[in-house]
Each structure stands twice: as structure tokens, then as C-alpha cells.
Design goal:
Layout lengths: L3 H15 L15 H4 L3 H22 L1 H9 L21 H10 L11 H7 E8 L5 E7 H17 L8 E3 L7 H13 L3 E3 L5 H11 L3 E4 L1 H13 L11 E4 L8 H11 L2 E6 L10 E2 L12 E4 L4 E6 L13 E7 L10 E10 L11 E3 L10 E3 L2 E3 L1 H9 L8 E7 L5 E8 L7 H12 L4 E5 L14 E3 L5
Parallel strand pairs: 3-4, 3-5, 5-6, 6-7, 16-19, 17-18
Antiparallel strand pairs: 1-2, 7-8, 8-9, 9-13, 10-11, 11-12, 12-13, 14-15, 16-17
Amino acid sequence: MIDRADETRATWLATLKRFHHDPKQPASAAIWSPRLDAASRDELIAIQNEKLTALTPFLYENSPFYRRRFDRFGLAPTDIATVDDLAKFPPVDKAEMMADALDHQPYGTYSTMTDAVWAERGWMMFSSSGSTGVPRVFRYSHIDREYWSWANARACYAMGFRKGDTVFMMTGYGPHVFAWGVQYAMETMRLPTIPGGGMDAKARVGIINRFKPTILLCTPSYALHLGRVMQEMGLDPAASSVHSLLLGGEPVLSIATTHQRIEKLWGARVVEFYGCTEASPHVGGYSCDAPRPDGQPVATHLMEDIQIWETVDPESKATQRTGERGLTVCTNLMSESSPQLRFLVGDYTTLDTAPCSCGRTHVRAIGSFAGRADDLINLRGIKMFPAQVEDAVRAIPGSGDEFEIVLATDSGGLDVMTVRCEHPDGAARQQVFADEIRTRCEVRVTVEVLTPGTLPKTEFKAKRVRDLRGRG
């Protein structure tokens, strides 16, 4: 006799399979899956509603975390059967997951991966940790891997990746979804890759110079660092074989001075992956290759057949209308192991359902994603994101690529901020930096201008903020 957990799992997997269109190859010269990527609003909502109908019973029967949550709010799985019903279910935040991971070690109960499924078709474990360092692990199955590689291939195809391209993968293959997702997408697209983990910058420059990859995968910070090393070696990044930089791990398109600096350095275009481990194992947001008219903000595509994206009010967490800036919330509609229901990703953006000139019809994040709520700096009641400071620092001609924000409490008990940055003119530029930061962040800060090369170079995901407040 099949129990309810197995029955709902079978229904969920059958539903996912039904919407797995054009999985191995693109269906057109411009769009991988026109049936999905160019679907009408009504068609997309119908897909989401059908998936939700199968998802909520699956979560209730296979995730103790979600069962407890449904019960706590007095909801049955059938109460959330359409997109309009989502507001009944309060968003899930990372703190809840962290508590669950502590109470139910080692894996927590927030996923639908069981030990039996892991033993039968387990594929890979990824992890994410919050500000407290509590690890949240996510075990994924080979079914997840298949859907993941397909979704990421659709995204990379939208970025303009085609036969003849070679991707140089310049990240370590640790438990991070970004690099692995691109690796499997390239396998689906039958595009070659060059693994570049474990190399220093000079060795990677040698690979670029010798083997001529056309696409680099790394973080924005590392793209800047690698380009500078290339220049130090007497080579011009803009004259290299690279035509695109696929960046992730840090905001880039939302910070105009940073992505413009990278594009000028490399003479190549910047495209961006956006996502999170919790609502994986596939891309959340991605760039397209449609030209952007001058003065128009960047926009990040989101796949609505595999995820439902919302914004909520930062304080009340109430659902906002399309076009209102708020924090991102994601419901994952394409995973056997981690189909999160209303997970609070927590990045600020504004959603727009107007079709893109590339032909894709899914919702887009206008201005991309400028800052995560977790990263928000509150200095004496003035709130800002590290990205705002970054934009200010890199707006100064000749400024270095590295910077650091140090928060501390002075002897009088006042919280203060020091921005450490680099410029060859040293202290002569101190006031220029201070004025630019004050203009963009509306706060007075101390600026320490250092000799170029003083601050450590970023190899992976940059940590720009040191918060020393309240320490002695």
C-alpha cells in the first residue's frame, strides 16, 4: 500500500515532468523553449496554479518543517492552490531554517529529501550559512540535477552562449550552487569548459592567453582582480578572446560603476546569474542579450514556470503589488528535494511583467538586485547598503578595485563608519571620496585612502564589511 508521502511525491514528480519542454536542445534560434519562455501571462499563471496544487500536499506529507508550519497557521494544503492564495502563508525566513537545522541535526526538516531517497538517487549536497554561521544543508537528487541543468541552459542560451564558445570556470567546486549550475548547463548545451579551480591569478591569465576561452565565470570582484593581474603581466584584457563575463555571488548589474568598470577593463559584456541555495537547484535570475536603450535600467529575468516571485513589505512582510519595491520572496516549483514555499530571499527589487524585447515574457527585476536585507547597514539610524558605498568609491577616477567598510563604536559610544579605499594620489583624494559617499549614502564617514595594492585581493565572494561595534 502506498502511503501519503509516496503518493504525493509521485504526483509532484509527474507534474514536474509534464512541464519539462525542450529539455535537451533549443527549440528556436533565439529562445530555448518558446512554449515556456514566451508563454502568455495567463499560461504562466495556469502552470503555477497546477504546480501549486501538487506542491502543497507534497510539502505537507514530506517535510515536517512545512507540516508544522501549515498546522501552526491553521492551514490545510488545499488552502493554497493558486497564486492568489499564497498571501495566506507567511514567508519563511532564514532564521526559521537555522532554528530547524539546530533542532533536527544534521539536515533539518525543511527539505523533502529523505534518507531513503538520498540512498537511492542522491546527487549532491550544497550548503548555505547565515550571519550566525549555522549551516543549512540541502541534499539534492539526480532528478533535481536534470531539471537544474535544463533551466540553467535556458538561461545561458538567453545570454547568447552558442556553439563555438568555451567557458573558463574560475571558481572552486565547493558546496556552492553557482559554479555547479553553470557546469551542468554547459553539459546540456554541449559547450566545452575549462576548469580553473585551485589556480592563482597568473596561472589563469596563462590559460586565457594560451587557450582563448570566450566566456569567463567568476565573481565581479575577481573579474577586476584578474584583469589587473593581466595588465601587470603586460597583457590587455580587452584584446583577449573573452567576449562575455558570467558573474555571480555578488551584485554587479545593479551597481553601474562596477559593471561599467569591468566591461571597460575587459572590452566585454557582463551578464549575471542571480539565485540562492535554498530555492535551487537552478538559476533564479539571469541576463538576456537584448540591447538596452540608453538611460534604461538593467533588468534581470526570472523564470516563472519554475518559480513564483513576489515582493513583500520589508517590515510587515505583506504582499506588494507588481511595480512596488520590496524584498524578494520565492516559491520553488521545480525541485524534488527543496521546493520551498514562499522563501524570503530578501533582496530589494521592483518586479515588472512587461515583455522584454528579447521575446521572453516572464517577470523581470528592474534595476536587478541592489542589496540583501541581511546586508543593510544601520548607522545611527541612517540605512544604506554596501553596494551604495561601492558605487561611490568606484565613481572616483583612478580608484582601486578593493575597498573595505569598518563599523565601530568610538570612545563616546557613538557608532562610526570608516571606508578604506585605494588611490595613487593618496590623502589628496580623501575629501573627494568622502563627498561622493555622502552624496550617495547621505552620511558623513571617515575615509582612509591607501596606497594601491594595500588591501587584500578578493579571490571569491567579497566580504566588504567589518562590524566591530560593541567590541571593547
